[in-house]
């Protein structure tokens, strides 16, 4: 028999290796993409295209940042620095990348958390009471399909126009205060909620036919208790799996939403960094996002085992 | 709890129909019976005969689109027709309990069984949470579960088949309902467990519970029922006192059901002593795996057996005894941890560092065919029957040009209409599917047929037909057969030799006549006792 701690260590190592691979792939992709995008990084370092730099200044800067070395060497140096935790300085902001992340990440994380709550609230409220109900079912189902198809940036513009400009209920821009997060969270959360609701609706419908549901009804349980205490738990897994993917989608869409609502955040920062060829900042943000992704996957895994304890028995 | 007035269930002219896109389908027609406390009424019939629908309509859970009508449907003084949902909830669980077929899914598989039982009490607001916890333990003890403290905290998948079925029954009788509906309560269980559940039901009856017992198995019903109702396609074909129906059945369908019981079929004639050359030899097979609790234990150990040409070897034992694992190793689908298998005189499976490479096995694969319990999951659902058989013929090296003719022959052989070739497995009945599986198996002209519970999922009358067919094909093609079943009746009917397994080991080997009539090992004796207990009360039809 293998001792318990060895099994835990094994599982942990496997997870860590997995996480490392993802981070490595993200760093590499990031390097490749920045090499492929047009524009000269040296110009970016010196302060953008408007600077009239002499060829000599350019050559000096190029040498100073190691940009005149062969690509494989640049790639090697880049990985070495990342591995040592040196994210370097942002070219465009002239401050350490870590500091940029420290100030920009919290608003984005708040936004994602809020959007995530919106998404799950929408998904649950739209499915649990309506699945297999004569009128509400089809109506809620169409609503979910429409929501899932809405592009967040478009929904964001619509919300902005309606609730900020027409009714003036929410501030149109900024990162200050609870109210400022409502519209962007809705714009991000509603489409994701549509997806979550679609998969939850299907699994909920299947779970309603489980024999244990009939047993529960035969006990004299009312419909609401049957749905909440038995069916829901059986129906949650696909949505939880999709949520891990959803985190990725949220980060991607946050870029557009933060631009539209002029919010602080790494989405907006990423957009600026890419257009400004700010290699260190792009790498820092991408790795940060990859880390969020890994943590989300890990949490989803934990949650799945909490919901379905049989999984633990299978995987150990 | 105050005494309930006259808890008698009266059912008169109950009819249930369902609205479908193609109009109304009648599920049950004009069913009448009376169920008193301490009495057992049995509804018997094959799948689709309307038994389960009847059970559900009696507790008001007919399902979507269902329409129930009756001249009388009452429990004591309460008219159950058009009862509002609120009143129904008060009756369900408290006055009528219900037990479904398979406790693995009939109890919520995500929760410990103790919580399920407590829920039966909580729904009817019985006691405080603390009192309920104590009551749960009492109930578990009442249904004969030892260590109730431990069992209450386990999920259905952590309990054995017998324990979880008992837990399910405990959850149904938690509120001491005067009536209990049991829908196929033992169908998926081993005979020893079936016998235990049978005992539990009879003690419930003796304590005054009225039982509506639903089953396709007349043998099971015979032990308990006072009255038997035989249903075919929703119509009552025969109804009367159990003793009369079992000894003097009038309707041909009842007679078919009685005769289809494999234990009433004459045993296979004693075959001459095994002289044929051995087709397959398995030596010292063992297979070790880590259990769900992380403890490594052998699934099978030191299994040695020989299959000779033209003979049938039965593999018997309770579920979890390693029968299927053994058959999968023999089929070359699972690599054992020790031991060897040779097939047609050459190595087929070898444990250890030098396994037999698949390329050496492939030319001989076609001489071995498999039939599973559930053919539906072994077919590609998008393929037609023609595609399935054509694929098997290609594997046997039959040129494409001959396929249409050969498939026609095969379907005729297994007595299926040619028109079925265009259908998909999802659209045909269970019996027809198993015939397609048999046709696919014999299409490759094998020497050896491995049948893993080939008829357990089928209705008894269909079972009899499929067994007849297997017997005939075996005779005509001289097939050797490895036959796995938990049903002693089926084994007695089909097998020349028998191997008994318990907890992964072979405990008894011999000819079927010897082992089944004069078992030496105490475990074999208890298996057979349980089996006879279930069917002994059926008189043999001359």
TrEMBL record, chain A:
Q: Which residues cross the membrane?
A: 12-34, 111-131, 143-165, 177-197, 242-261, 281-303
| Pfam families the record matches | BPD_transp_1 (PF00528), BPD_transp_1_N (PF19300)
Instruction: Please indicate if the UniProt record lists Oxidoreductase as a keyword.
Output: no
Give the CDD domains listed for this entry.
TM_PBP2
Per UniProt, the keywords (alphabetical) are: Cell membrane, Membrane, Transmembrane, Transmembrane helix, Transport
The ABC transmembrane type-1 domain sits at: 105-304
Q: Which domain of life is it from?
A: Bacteria
Gene Ontology cellular-component terms for this entry are: plasma membrane
How does this chain sit within the bilayer?
Multi-pass membrane protein
Q: What is this protein called?
A: ABC transporter permease
From TrEMBL, chain B:
Compartment(s) where it occurs, according to its Swiss-Prot or TrEMBL record: Cell inner membrane
Chief subcellular location: membrane
Q: SUPFAM superfamilies attached here? A: P-loop containing nucleoside triphosphate hydrolases (SSF52540)
Q: Which Gene3D superfamilies match?
A: P-loop containing nucleotide triphosphate hydrolases
Asked if the record carries the keyword rRNA processing, the reply is no
Ranges for domain ABC transporter come to 9-258, 280-528
GO annotations under biological process? peptide transport
Gene Ontology CC: one annotated term: plasma membrane
As for membrane topology, the entry says: Peripheral membrane protein
The UniProt record lists the keyword Nuclease = no
Recorded GO MF terms? ATP binding; ATP hydrolysis activity
InterPro entries reported for this sequence: AAA+_ATPase (IPR003593), ABC_Ni/Peptide_Import (IPR050388), ABC_transporter-like_ATP-bd (IPR003439), ABC_transporter-like_CS (IPR017871), Oligopep_ABC_C (IPR013563), P-loop_NTPase (IPR027417)
Keywords (alphabetical) are: ATP-binding, Cell membrane, Membrane, Nucleotide-binding, Transport
The record's NCBIfam families line, in alphabetical order, gives: PRK10419.1
Question: Member of which family?
Answer: Belongs to the ABC transporter superfamily.
Report what the protein is called.
ABC transporter ATP-binding protein
What is the organism of origin for this protein? Acetobacter oeni
